[in-house]
Amino acid sequence: MIRERFKPMKHFFIPLIIFFMLSGSCWANRILIPMDETQKNHLKAYGISYWILKNFEIEIDWLLNYRGGSFLVPYSQSFTSEMTIRGISFNVISEGQAGDILNQISAPDVNMDAVKLQKAPRVAVYSPKSKLPWDDAVTLVLTYAEIPYDVVYDDEVLNGKLPEYDWLHLHHEDFTGQFGKFFQYKDYPWYREQKQEAEGTAEKFQFSSVPQMKLAVAKKISEFVSGGGYMFAMCNATDTFDIALAADGIDIVESMYDGTPADPTANGKLNYDNSFAFRDFKTIPYPYEIEFSDIDNQPDERGLTEANDFFTLFQFSAKWDPVPSMLTQNHQSIIKGFLGQTTAFKNKFVKPEVVILAENKPAHEARYIHSTHGKGFFTFYGGHDPEDYQHRVGEEPTDLNLHPNSAGYRLILNNILFPAAKKKKLKT
């Protein structure tokens, strides 16, 4: 009798348990990774997105202009566990809540959009094998965000390995073949090692000089972009890349670099049709002047100090200009400036078809620019290290554990995820 009395209760609890199991799985259907000021670690949030794309091959919604460019991910316990380990802020939301967010974003009167990220890009960083007395902001942030990459240099480029990758990064590199114009450091071990390495590669590939070899490398990279690759460059890899291409067939370097004097009429022969971003610039051949051309805005021309050096991100239409919108996603619209061998680009030398993503208006300079080249894309970002205003030769690398919410470093990582976007969404 006692058993019979409690039998209905047993039948009641079984469907109740099933209901809670089912409703629980439906309730926990999406993960929202906020990218506004509530995010504890913006940089690692990019890394977890890359990790999900690479290891699970599922789509991620990048919510442009929604809470700083948040990410919406299908729910998985393994995802939330990994986010917790990495110190990333996230919210588990229902499918209904996710639908409400997507409906809000899709409204025609709001400047938001959802872009599908589909496949983790294969990443390569162009960097010498020898250790240099400065650090690369991109390798620092890729390592911190836990995004894998391969290192390639002149050998790999000249041997045709670039098509194996989707995304190529160039940082503190001199494509004019003048070793950064650091001639005053010629007796330092790192300079001698760099010079010896470059001369060995030039001889191996039967080039008459390092400048000729670096030009060939720049042309290979240009072919990579034209064929559909994505190139991101910082510091003096930006202007020296364009200078080398514009000076194809012209001697713009002095004899200590190639054994022959520079052509005194070189600036009248530059072909700006070959360059990606800049036009009408003039080279600076003097070996003891550390500048390569007049593209870079000099400190005495800028009239800025660390206290007032800031640049502003432009806002683009997320629905009509998704590419520049992706590249400018941030929780801050005003970014603190930072110096480099190439710090900023004078506006007057930027080609009209190039999109200026961020600028310092008082200094008449562009800091962050983007455009297409053939079937591919390129982005140039002036300066050396977004969290070290004036990084000097031999200084310790920036510890990104102290800057997990760096707005300046976020711009680099926007470029990492950009190639993962669904192609039909790219309207520019």
From TrEMBL:
Protein name in UniProt: Asparagine synthetase B
Source organism, top-level taxon: Bacteria
